[in-house]
Amino acid sequence: MADRPRDASAAFEQTMRLLWDPSARPARGPRPRLSRERIVAAAIEIADRDGLAATSMRAVARALGVGAMSLYRYVPSKDALADLMFDAVLARQPKAADLPGAWRAKLEAVARLDLALYLRHPWVLEVSTSRPPLGPGTLDTYESVLRAAAGSGLPERELSAAVTALAAYVRGAAQTRLTELRTIRESGMSDEQWWSERNGFWTRYFDPERYPTISGLYAAGVYDDLPDAFDWGLQRLLDGFAARIAAAADSA
Fold first, then answer.
1. Is the pLDDT of residue 53 over 60?
2. Radius of gyration of the chain from its Cα atoms, rounded to whole angstroms
3. Given this model, what pLDDT does residue 65 score?
4. Could you tell me if 154 and 99 are in contact, meaning their C-beta atoms sit under 8 angstroms apart?
5. Alpha-carbon distance values, 157 to 19, 27, 183, 249 (Å)
6. How many Cα atoms sit within 13 Å of 50 on the Cβ side?
7. How far apart are CA 249 and CA 61, in angstroms?
8. Side-chain-side CA neighbours of residue 214 (13 Å)
9. pLDDT of residue 46
10. What is the mean pLDDT of residues 108-116?
11. How many whole angstroms separate alpha carbon 144 and alpha carbon 133?
12. CA distance linking residue 51 with residue 69, whole number of Å
């Protein structure tokens, strides 16, 4: 038990070297058949298809056609591999500060890009945002979105909270959408088919007097033309930022 802090510290330092020193290579051994980049790319492909839990060192080695032990010359553990995977995915994302437009256009674009990233790489949602890998891809992304928000007029002490709120909204929306897609895939039935099979519910069980609000909205045709929930929520969140910016300007 007493060795755990020291072991954790050593593992952290080793992972930091891997993240921040791309030139680092195995010091000894035969001419390498592998590279850290190939290992990470293979791991991401497995995680995209089968999930993070299935992305073992053995599975990655099998995909690369090598023995599992050969991977440890490049990546010391599965935890370190997950950090490298997460950082590599974020490093490829367009950066907020480089996107066109003022603060609102930048943050809206970031939200949509992040939603697309989660749908491409669902396993990214399993990585803790409160204890993220401290790699260059992660910090470059955070720095860039903070810089985009900093140009908005929000008070400095509120910038991190605003960025965190936006990220949490997108993560929640992504979780909901991925659940919907998984349900469709596992059931073999679209949402339209599912609701169609339950048409009899409304005449046999549904009581309009017990649920007058639902009934009133239905009678008004509201459910025939619903706005996109993600877009609606995103715009209201950004409206809230804009209102806070205006209030801060008025009190200055």
1. yes
2. 24
3. 93
4. no
5. 29, 45, 41, 15
6. 11
7. 57
8. 7
9. 97
10. 97
11. 17
12. 22
CA dist 118 and 140 (Å) reads: 18
Per the document, the length of the chain is 252
Among residues 88, 81, 80, which one has the least CA distance to residue 117?
88
How far is Cα 84 from Cα 74, in angstroms, rounded to an integer?
A: 11
Domains in the chain: ranges and CATH:
4-90 (1.10.10.60), 93-251 (1.10.357.10)
pLDDT at position 210? 96
What's the token pair of residue 229?
A: 């929930």
User: Phi-psi bin for 153: left (phi > 0), alpha (psi -120 to 50), beta?
Assistant: left
Above 60 in pLDDT, residue 75?
A: yes
Q: How far apart are CA 81 and CA 127, in angstroms?
A: 12
Pick the more confident residue, 249 or 162: 162
Closest CA to 33 of 58, 66, 55, 59: 66
**CB of 52 closer than 8 Å to CB of 126:** yes
